[in-house]
């Protein structure tokens, strides 16, 4: 480290939190497309803390966030200015579908690497942080940054579906339920939904960021749901898992034929087997859109992580409330959810 960069590096931590926010936001754009990989963001800063590059992992098999960031820095001709890397997840130190990100960082003049979360994947050697340190880089964990805890919550929320799957062997499960002013989930005759257009937009945003859907045979028969992402832009060319719970497998054959064009459809006769079934898929995060019968069964077995209830009042306004069984929720990353806390209702601004 030369004396020039030494003197400026003390000012950098003030910029690190904001850089983490940028990295999380960039990664969040690709949530729903990275499975089985996590959504990860990386921001490169110069010695004064100016942002050089913002990058994220787009898709499994494509470049990891750090490597893409370094490639973009090269393309922009700013690689020699890289002083600090901010990464939401500990850089990988092994060759998987792509080479180690530690090597990508070491191919630059980077001096300090700030890391959000340690890699929770028990199936990879890890040690990226220690390796970079052994190579002479300064490695800092986000907790050490000014206001690190606040930024850390966003990093953990981003990683939550992946971390949950790594530690507990099944995807994160979010239930989304709409309830009308009379306390019923059943839409009016001739309709599949009754919530406001803004709520539908939110529901479709949730479909976008999740890797799969879970429903019941009753919902399929009643609604012939398409489960497409229509009210917000979807990821291109995606194929996701759709689990239909029910012992009867009694769903219309033409619905199944159409669904199989877009989804890998799996039947689950007994929802206590849902975690094991989901574990056979690459999904990190699934969303349940089912009727009251299946929701009761999932509730009885604690087979959910977040429960999002969209309740409608007599004036036709939607009230959102979220319960989460854990200390973190990926739902907190929707900007409009920023004011939501556990068990507390809120009104998303869409
Ligand atoms: N407002 C909202 O958010 C939503 C409302 N709906 C509405 O809900 C209504 C349908 O309700 P409902 O019939 O309860 O639909 P469900 O989606 O809950 O499907 C019910 C079926 O789920 C299966 N099931 C029940 N328990 C289990 C279990 N433990 N393990 C595996 N499978 C199980 C059974 O299938 P089987 O008989 O084959 O064994 C059962 O018949 C429709 O009017 C629909 O529009 C639907 C989704 C969301
Ligand atoms: N009723 C209801 C929902 N219901 C869910 O939406 C499904 C229909 O999806 P699609 O065929 O893609 O339009 C339906 O079968 C059920 O799972 N969703 C909501 O956001 N608000 C609502 O009021």
Could you state the order of secondary-structure elements as H and E? Answer: HHEEHEHEHEHEHEHEHEHEHEEE
Unreliable stretches (pLDDT < 50, length at least 5) are 1-11, 338-350
CATH A-level architecture of the largest domain: 3-Layer(aba) Sandwich
CATH superfamily of the largest domain: Dihydrofolate Reductase, subunit A
Q: How many domains is the backbone divided into?
A: 2
Largest sheet: 8 strands, mixed
Radius of gyration, CA atoms, in whole angstroms:
22 Å
Number of helices: 11
CATH level 1 name of the largest domain: Alpha Beta
- State the end-to-end distance: 46 Å
Mean pLDDT: 90
Protein name: Riboflavin biosynthesis protein RibD
Organism: Acetobacter okinawensis
Pathway: Cofactor biosynthesis; riboflavin biosynthesis; 5-amino-6-(D-ribitylamino)uracil from GTP: step 3/4; Cofactor biosynthesis; riboflavin biosynthesis; 5-amino-6-(D-ribitylamino)uracil from GTP: step 2/4
InterPro entries: APOBEC/CMP_deaminase_Zn-bd, CMP_dCMP_dom, Cytidine_deaminase-like, DHFR-like_dom_sf, Eubact_RibD, RibDG_C
Summarize this entry quickly:
The protein has 350 residues and is of the alpha/beta class. Helix content is 33%, strand content 21%. The strands form two sheets. Strands 9-8-7-10-6-11-12-13 form an eight-stranded mixed beta sheet. Strands 2-1-3-4-5 form a five-stranded mixed beta sheet, with helices on both faces.
């Amino acid at each position: 480290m030369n004396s020039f960069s030494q003197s400026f590096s003390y000012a950098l931590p003030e910029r690190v939190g904001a850089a983490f926010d940028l990295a999380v936001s960039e990664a969040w754009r690709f949530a729903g497309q990275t499975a089985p990989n996590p959504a990860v963001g990386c921001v490169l800063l110069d010695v004064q803390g100016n942002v050089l590059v913002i990058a994220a992992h787009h898709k499994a098999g494509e470049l990891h966030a750090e490597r893409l960031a370094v490639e973009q820095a090269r393309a922009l001709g700013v690689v020699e200015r890289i002083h600090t890397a901010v990464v939401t997840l500990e850089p990988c130190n092994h060759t998987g579908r792509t080479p180690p990100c530690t090597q990508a960082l070491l191919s630059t003049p980077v001096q300090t690497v700030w890391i959000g979360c340690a890699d929770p994947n028990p199936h990879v050697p890890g040690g990226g942080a220690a390796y970079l340190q052994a190579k002479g880089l300064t490695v800092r964990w986000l907790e050490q940054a000014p206001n690190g805890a606040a930024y850390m919550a966003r990093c953990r929320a981003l990683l939550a579906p992946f971390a949950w799957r790594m530690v507990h062997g099944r995807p994160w499960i979010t239930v989304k339920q709409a309830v009308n002013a009379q306390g019923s989930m059943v839409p009016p005759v001739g309709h599949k939904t009754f919530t406001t257009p803004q709520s539908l937009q939110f529901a479709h945003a949730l479909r976008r960021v999740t890797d799969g859907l879970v429903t019941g045979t009753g919902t399929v028969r009643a609604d012939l749901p398409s489960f497409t992402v229509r009210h917000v832009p979807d990821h291109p060319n995606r194929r996701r898992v759709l689990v239909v719970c029910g012992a009867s497998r009694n769903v219309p054959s033409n619905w199944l034929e159409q669904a199989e064009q877009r989804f890998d459809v799996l039947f689950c006769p007994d929802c206590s087997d849902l975690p094991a079934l989901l574990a056979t898929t690459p999904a990190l995060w699934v969303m349940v859109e089912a009727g009251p019968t299946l929701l009761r069964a999932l509730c009885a077995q604690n087979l959910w992580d977040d429960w999002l209830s969209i309740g409608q009042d007599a004036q036709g306004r939607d009230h959102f409330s979220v319960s989460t069984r854990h200390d973190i929720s990926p739902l907190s990353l929707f900007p409009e959810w920023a004011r939501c806390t556990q068990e507390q209702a809120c009104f998303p601004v869409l």
